[in-house]
Every structure is written in C-alpha cells, then in structure tokens.
C-alpha cells in the first residue's frame, strides 16, 4: 500500500506573525519557516503504518516554492521514503488555493497509484480546512476528517473522529483521504543519523507544466489586519468585589 502525504511550509508556530504595513499580507522576511504541525502528525502516522507492515511506501509532497525542499527533507528524516516538490510559484507570498492544491494532488495520486492520502486537517497559516475534502471529491474516494485514531485492516480504514461533544468511529473503504487531528499521535524528532540519511533519499522536482496543470486563482485578499488588542485586566481584592465588577460590566445579571 502506498501512502501519499501532502505537507506545507508555513511560518513556525512559535513565531509571532507580523502584518505588512500596507495590509497586503503577512511579512515573511527573515521569518523562520517549518512544517505545518498537522502535517507532521500525518507524516508520523504514515511512517508508523509502514513500520507496522501495513504500508510499503510513504511519499511526501509539497507544493509551492523551491525553499520547501528543506521541509521535505525533514519529512524524509522522520521516515518517509521519497519526496516530490511541485514548483508552483517563485514568490513565497503567493498562496496556492485549496482547490488548486487538490487538483495537483489528484494528478500525483493517480500517477503514483496511491492507496491512502493522509493530510493535516488544516494549515496554520490560513486555517482553510478544505484541501482534503476537495481532494476526496475530485478523486471520488471515501474520506474521514479530524482523525484521532486510524487503524487499517482488510482494505478498510477504521477512523475515530473528534466531533462536538465526543468521538465518532467510522469505517471507510480504501482508497481514502483521511485528515488528521492533534491527538492522533506525537510526531518524532528526526535524529542526526536520519537527517544525514535523508540527504540521500530521492527528492524529485516537477513543474505544473509537467503535470499538465495550471493555477486558476479564485480568491483575492482584500486586506490583512492584526487582531484587536485585548484590554488590560484588573485586580480585585475579594470574590465579592469580583462579582460586583462582573455585574457592573453586564457579565452577571
């Protein structure tokens, strides 16, 4: 069984995001970039499935700029077998929209003969949470979202999903697209020996023309703003004073 894992290069989750002065987008100059945290979880799950003998090959894919090579190398160091970089733009500020990403992944999945696609449920830069669902529709495959547990057996994936108020377990037939949530696993750290080995693993580069595709942007960012700053808190001397303050501010009736 082949597993395809899309990964995205995003601003590191520990970095404070800055908006450009003109409000046209996020400032990426001299900013640390890393793998999308949800994608780290999907890579880890794919590697675990291979280690368990369920999968024969794990292929990681990134779509965007050439700098995404380092992100792919990280995934290879975690245990993926090979990587594919689709050069879709030269500008790090260009955002490849979910539908375009889904179309690219559909072509790669068909060309590679993938049986399972594991995606992060969303990217932390735009929080779209759309690519996996769109990809499932384009391929005509089954799908399961927000997975906190995945078991593969006899051509079926048993997926435990996180839903409002609890957990839901579903069985989906393979091939399938599964998007993963935070509590599925704890991604491993790549050891130094594996980082060195990753440098020798195959990393293929291709363009949209190689795939016979072209981007068709449908969204336009009008403006980007910083979140509204929170008002400073106050200290109270007693519970009675706290209750009285809450009443005065309309929080309590």
Any overview of this molecule?
The protein is of the alpha/beta class and 253 residues long. It has a single domain (2-248), classed as Rossmann fold (3-Layer(aba) Sandwich), CATH 3.40.50.620. It is 28% helix and 27% strand. The chain is built from seven helices and eleven strands. The chain has helices at 37-51, 69-78, 98-112, 131-139, 192-198, 208-211, 239-248, and strands at 2-6, 9-11, 33-35, 57-64, 82-87, 116-120, 142-153, 156-163, 166-173, 176-180, 203-207. The strands form two sheets. Strands 9-8-7-10-6-1-4-5-11 form a nine-stranded mixed beta sheet, with helices on both faces. Helix 2 (69-78) packs across helix 5 (192-198) and helix 3 crosses helix 4. The longest helix has 15 residues, at 37-51. The mean pLDDT is 92. Keywords: Electron transport, Transport. InterPro entries: ET-Flavoprotein_bsu_CS, ETF_a/b_N, ETF_b, ETF_beta_N, Rossmann-like_a/b/a_fold. One of its GO terms (biological process) is carboxylic acid catabolic process.
